[in-house]
Amino acid sequence: MNSYHLAILQATNNGRFPELGDTWRNYHPEAVLSDSDYPVLTEANDSM
User: Fold this and answer.
1) What tens digit of pLDDT does each residue of 5-37 get?
2) C-alpha closest to that of 33 among 7, 12, 6
3) What per-residue confidence (pLDDT) applies to 25?
4) Please, what's the b/e burial string for 2-38 (b: 16 or more CB within 10 A of its CB; e: otherwise)?
5) How many C-beta atoms surround the C-beta of residue 48 within 10 A?
6) In total, how many domains does the chain have?
């Protein structure tokens, strides 16, 4: 299994939460976050 499939499995908790499949970039070591992902992550981090 390649690293992209492993990242998707991690993001979806082995398929239990398929709606979270789009978050695979957070779990892949070589994936670059898209511009649309960045503000969501930084806003969440700022509120902590």
Assistant:
1) 888 899 899 989 888 888 877 777 777 665 555
2) 7
3) 77
4) eeeeebbbebbeeeeeeeeeebbeebbeeeeeeeeee
5) 4
6) 1
Give the structural domain span for 27: 3-46
- CB distance 13 to 25 below 8 Å: no
User: How many CB atoms sit inside 10 A of residue 47's CB?
Assistant: 6
Separation of alpha carbons 30 and 32, rounded Å:
7
Token pair, residue 23, equals: 């978050």
- Among residues 22, 23, 30, the alpha carbon closest in space to that of 2 is found at 30
